[in-house]
Amino acid sequence: MRPSLVPLLLSCCALAALSGCTSGPPAPHGEARGTSASGSELGQSDVNRMATLGMRENLDSLYRLMDKLYRRNPAEWRKTTAAGREQAMEQVRTTIEQGGTWAPLQGRRDIAAMALALAPEFAGDRVAAFIFATADMLITAHDGKIEFFLLDSLDAQHLYNAARNVEIAAWMLSQRRTAAGQPLLLADEIGPQGRNLSFEREFGKIIGRLDLLAAVALEKYRRAAITYVQGLVGGSFLQFLPVR
After folding, report:
1. CA 85, CA 72: separation in Å to the nearest integer?
2. pTM of the entire structure?
3. 8 Å CB contact between 188 and 218
4. 202 — phi, psi (to 5°)?
5. pLDDT digit string, tens, across residues 107-159
6. How far apart are alpha carbons 183 and 199 in whole angstroms?
7. Of 32, 53, 33, 31, which is closest to residue 41 (Cα–Cα)?
8. Count of alpha carbons within 13 Å of 46, Cβ hemisphere only?
9. What does the alpha-carbon distance between residue 61 and residue 111 come to, in Å, rounded to a whole number?
10. Which among 170, 171, 94 has a CA at the least distance from the CA of 128?
11. Deepest in the core among 26, 59, 97, 167, taking most CB within 10 A?
């Protein structure tokens, strides 16, 4: 065989192998989706809208964590009167969305509720208590709201503190043990069968959103002033010019 044909032949073989590997359609990876428009948006600034979407996403992340934790720790929801995992999740979700309290936490809210939910001696449904307490802390950091409008303001330091609280809670969940030496809850796992770090990733999403919103809240008034100046300066360049 002529030497000059060898590279060409190898290339053809590689292309054939690749075409065989990709004979089917690529796996779907989803697409960017927004929320449907509503009349309430008329009363929201860009920052208000971002905060509302961020809160919604963070609560949904907590609900996904609740589902994962219940699947790995089914004994927790069985401590309640719920008929099944789905009903137990719905009870927690409804209580959070309606601003209620969680009886096993003995009236505690915010970080006090988180501390009790992650205490080794807590004997109730730890999954429900932890998710409710964390959600309550997030809502408290957002001035007690889950939807934001023009008259609402956000405290950047409170949002930053909330992000650090989530980091601490994730660490406690992975490190703390009961009196019997068992993890408070089974979550991430690294073992011979593989690695499951989905809990860590979900916590990371919440932390990232909070840190970004804290940064935006810090810049809100500075950006408003800059936008005003840009409007004044740009106005002189956006005028029609005489043509005769």
Report:
1. 11
2. 0.77
3. no
4. -70, -40
5. 999 999 999 999 999 999 999 999 999 999 999 999 999 999 988 889 999 99
6. 15
7. 53
8. 7
9. 19
10. 94
11. 59
